[in-house]
Write a structure and sequence with these properties.
By secondary structure, this protein is α/β, with parallel strands linked by helices. It contains 15 helices and 9 strands. The strands form 2 sheets. Strands 2-3-4-5-6-7 form a 6-stranded parallel β-sheet. The radius of gyration is 19 Å and the shape is globular. The structure holds S-adenosyl-L-homocysteine. S-adenosyl-L-homocysteine binds next to loops.
């Protein structure tokens, strides 16, 4: 009981200061009681409502290629996975996804893919221009990995608004255990800084329970996010993927992911925070639990049904039910049931709107 009281005080301080000492964060993360998780959730929900009310933003996710030149140990579409059934959508197919999505009410499209050498700047720029030309009322998010600062500038100049690049872990040593030697933590971080200075609304994030991750790693991630001040943060449980070195590793904890969503909300009150597909895959109603814990974004799948099963970054990835863009009505109902409202608007980061005189 005494401990519960102490944790409440700690959480109140986190809410008021948007910060805690690493030592206190550690105690908070190590406290497995339901009371602590529930109080964190209540506070995070209150803080989210200050900026966003009960609005939940939707993003139409288009997984446009699963070719990848990288070999990340955790990822099912790593280049060494010869069993992955590779596909690449054509420009026309991508534009069709946008058309369907726009009719359904999506006002943000997210182009996500492996690091596919086919998609040079010369090919991406006209695609971005066409999407933004066809849908000037929409935001376009890219999630296509590490590129040069010059490339990021070109993509931004072509009209892309946001970019998701998870930092994966703030600890270079941990990074080295998740990625082959050709990939470097310093380059990942430099990419994030370049994205920000190119004027993208930028998202970082990490997997919860990735192999070798310690509580201190997670604290490092929370501190990194606080310092970097991203507009978006994506986190989800690690889920083992077949034909990868980590196939036999344990899945990340759903409870820890939910606690971290709440803590990230309290540390970064206005951040755009999705309840991710990985969370929805790891737990029934994971999406709803994520929203209740302080998340305010969901990203239903807009990819053509024929390729959905092929973007297998991990096993059993949700591709049916409320996950799909077609069942948006059901998602709206499910959100209403728990007291939230899906908004069919662009849903930019709040201060970004002011900066750009663009408030839709
Ligand atoms: N190539 C892009 C997109 C990668 S997929 C990029 O590098 O940004 C998006 C995210 O999915 C990754 O950043 C990673 O954090 C997550 N992911 C990959 N494999 C996963 C797994 N096995 N379990 C959970 N999340 C995973």
């Amino acid at each position: 009981m005494q401990n519960t009281e102490k944790m409440r005080k700690t959480i109140d301080r986190l809410t008021a200061d948007t910060m805690l000492d690493p030592q206190e964060l550690k105690l908070l993360l190590q406290d497995n009681s339901n009371e602590t998780a529930e109080y964190l959730r209540e506070q995070a929900d209150m803080v989210r409502r200050r900026t966003y009310g009960n609005s939940v933003y939707i993003r139409g996710l288009i997984e446009f290629t699963n070719y990848c030149k990288n070999d990340c140990y955790y990822c099912g579409i790593r280049c060494s996975n010869k069993k992955a059934d590779r596909y690449r959508l054509s420009k026309e197919e991508i534009l069709n996804c946008c058309e369907t999505g726009h009719e359904l009410g999506f006002r943000t499209f997210v182009l996500q893919g492996g690091e596919d050498p086919y998609w040079t700047d010369e090919r991406l720029v006209p695609l971005i221009e066409q999407i933004k030309g066809n849908y000037p009322d929409c935001a376009l998010t890219l999630s296509i990995g590490e590129r040069t600062p010059e490339s990021y500038r070109k993509l931004r100049a072509a009209g892309a608004d946001r970019y998701l690049l998870r930092h994966e872990t703030a600890d270079p040593k941990h990074y080295g255990r998740l990625h082959p030697a050709e990939m470097s933590h310093s380059n990942r971080i430099e990419c994030l800084r370049a994205l920000k200075s190119s004027g993208f609304q930028t998202g970082c994030g990490f997997m919860v329970g990735s192999p070798f991750q310690t509580i201190d790693n997670i604290i490092g991630d929370l501190m990194f996010i606080k310092e970097f001040q991203p507009e978006m943060v994506g986190i989800g449980p690690f889920i083992p993927a077949s034909n990868t070195p980590f196939v036999n590793e344990a899945q990340g904890s759903v409870e820890m992911t939910l606690k971290l969503i709440s803590i990230i909300r309290l540390m970064n009150p206005m951040v755009l925070l999705p309840a991710t597909t990985a969370l929805g895959t790891a737990s029934e109603d994971g999406r709803a639990k994520g929203i209740r814990a302080g998340a305010n974004v969901v990203m239903p799948n807009l990819s053509p049904v024929s390729v959905r099963k092929k973007y297998n970054i991990y096993d059993n990835k949700l591709a049916t039910g409320c996950e799909t863009a077609e069942s948006l009505d059901r998602l709206c109902l499910n959100m209403e049931k728990i007291g939230y409202k899906i908004e069919k608007i662009k849903g930019n980061y709040p201060t970004f709107d002011r900066k750009n005189g663009d408030d839709k």
